[in-house]
Amino acid sequence: MPLIESSTFTLILWALIGYGLGSIPFGLLLTQLLGLGNLREIGSGNIGATNVLRTGNKTAAALTLLLDGGKGVVAVLLARSLAGEDAAQLAALTAMIGHCYPVWLRFNGGKGVATFLGLMWALAWPVGLGCSIAWAVGALVSRMSSMGGLLAAAMSTFLLVLTGHGPMLILGILLTMLVFWRHRGNIARIRQGTEPKIGSKA
Q: Where are the transmembrane segments (predicted)?
């Protein structure tokens, strides 16, 4: 049972908490902390794990992946336990928005795949598992991180329906749309055959 009724005030509060958690730029913080340079001036300039890998530090990239996913998990589980399912879904959406458009970075954040996967694990773990498998298969086969992320996002809608999580479908579609929107440049490069492979310095 949630400890607090999901009133309008409570929903607004969890929307703000979700955004705050999602907007923590772990990739940028880790590269600065480890003296790996300014992530904005490396590779694509993105703050996600794929670009952190371009520093050559696999540990930092793995930590970025885990922390970016973890903040999504924390946002959902905290909101669900304290305020119920409506608050959890709202916190999930705003956490994703916070990661992609953090106020601290002038609304220029990451592309959201790790956070998206973390959210799916917390919202419905079978969907999270399926999306993670889709991400791994897409990335390994194509050797493009973006392809893995796009495949995982595309699969999420079908997985929500197949696993009986229809009430989350609108949220799932919104999150998927965010992933695809943030990857619009990658999609254009995939079509042109110029998308960088995993591990490249581009």
A: 12-39, 87-104, 116-138, 158-181
